Request: fold
Amino acid sequence: MNFLNKYGWLLCTIAMIGDLVVSLILSFFYKGYSSTKMSISALGNPSSPVRVPFNLWMILEGLLFLSAIPAIYKGYNSVSGGLTKVLVVFIAAFAIGACIFTGFFSVNESKDVVTTASKIHGAGSAIGFMLFLFVPLLLAILSLKSSESGMGIISIVCFVISLVFFVLFVMSDKPEFKDTFIQNEGLWQRLNLIFMYLPLIIISIKNIRS
Reply:
């Protein structure tokens, strides 16, 4: 059982670190792609030269998150069953809406082109991101209830910072911010992900090593 528990936390770690690393590596093979100005999901658009590996990775990433849920649930259920259920539902929603849906329903290179696939992608991704945004806050509460004050403080700080970057990410798409520093959609998305993931990465590594 301990082996299966560590295996789950390992899958969770791979999903989060892989999300950042895989998109960075694939960006080098997409001429004209800007990691600061373009969203990660743009790597999977129909005209992208890395569309296939990117979309396959996004599906795999979602499955990795889903596979990690039993370990996450077991790790916190004894602390608070209700909060833990909310936590795993939020993670599952992100895995399906922002990862698996991204692999099956691609956005277009230009946001002016709207298709059924891009609408499904947009809805799934928006819901997934908004829910996962509160994962650090839930982890903070669970950590504090477990008398892990250090982890609780780190999680709260990460929640606040990720919230700031999420707001900037949303604002970057607005016409009034065109040609300003705020339009760096890709930069804000990546920074948002880093701080959303950081508490769970720390907790995952801690559980793998214990």
